[in-house]
Amino acid sequence: MAIHLRSAEELEKMHRAGLIVYEVLTALRSAVKPGMTTMDLEKLTEEKIAWQPGHAAFKGYRGYPCMLCTSVNSEIVHGIPSPRRRLREGDIVSIDFGMEVDGYYADSAVTVPLGKIRPEVQKLLDVTRESLDRAIDKMRSGNRLGDVGHAVQSWVEENGFSVVREFVGHGIGTRMHDEPNLPNYGEEGRGPRLQEGMVIAIEPMVNAGRPEVRMRGEWVAETADGSPSAHFEHTVAVTANGPWILTRPREVTGPSW
Ligand code: MF3
Ligand code: CO
């Protein structure tokens, strides 16, 4: 199976979905406060997109029950919003959201601190976000997919953290999960060559401790050792002008999150 190459028109459609995703995530990022529950975030999202075109991509996907994934502290990904999960000062929460508009998808995530967090946890957020920036910078035609995964892994491991193996970034377009898979590890110069029009959701999942995952039920992945985990994601296109982050407005520049 080949990796899809998206036309300029298709990229604009994905950007439309991506701008809604960005609007929701930036609103949630500023709204989230100690004392709120993760279900409060889900409700805010429902309100935010009620009058927007398209639909939330996760709800109903393989039976997933919500619009958001909200993964707290040692939860890595796919935490399910709950009225019983109250956020407290010192927690971190990964908020993951996707939209489908006019047949095209966009997917993004940000990990947010609640109030004051421990310095080691702040470092985990900084290193994970920077690993995403470094990976995005590799999204240039002529590079190889392995260069992207390597950029994440090398930065994370140099900083004493570990990358999760069981979940990966992914091609995205007319389906949320398309070819290719993008592991958060890799070797430079290996894998398919990147070409203009390729679009990948890059999503480093980084554990402060060991890389192993433990499943809690069907969906929730948490660190086996209970250490905190961070997750940042953007949908990124390879273009003639370099990487294009489809999940934010063009006028926003600088660090990915
Ligand atoms: N960003 C996540 C992913 O790429 C979202 C999927 S959650 C699901 O896998 F519920 F939709 F599966
Ligand atoms: Co994704």
SSE blueprint:
Layout lengths: L7 H24 L6 H12 L5 E2 L11 E5 L2 E3 L14 E10 L2 E10 L5 H19 L7 H14 L3 E2 L5 E3 L6 E5 L16 E4 L2 E3 L5 E4 L3 E4 L5 E3 L2 E6 L2 E4 L12
Antiparallel strand pairs: 1-4, 2-4, 3-12, 4-5, 6-10, 7-8, 7-9, 9-14, 10-13, 11-12, 14-15
The chain binds 2-amino-4-trifluoromethylsulfanyl-butyric acid (MF3) and cobalt (II) ion (CO).
- Secondary-structure element pattern, one letter each: HHEEEEEHHEEEEEEEEEE
Instruction: Report the CATH architecture.
Output: Alpha-Beta Complex
Q: If helices are DSSP runs of H or I spanning 4 or more residues, what is the number of helices?
A: 4
* Structural class label: alpha+beta
Tell the overall outline: globular
Instruction: Give the CATH topology.
Output: Creatine Amidinohydrolase
> How many structural domains does the protein architecture include?
1
CATH superfamily: Creatinase/methionine aminopeptidase superfamily
Q: How confident overall, as mean pLDDT?
A: 98
| Rg on CA atoms, Å | 17 Å
Fraction in beta strands: 25-35%
The N- and C-terminal alpha carbons lie at a distance of: 32 Å
Number of E strands: 15
Helix content: 25-40%
Widest sheet, order of strands: 8-7-9-14-15
* Ions and ligands: 2-amino-4-trifluoromethylsulfanyl-butyric acid, cobalt (II) ion
Quaternary state of this entry equals single chain
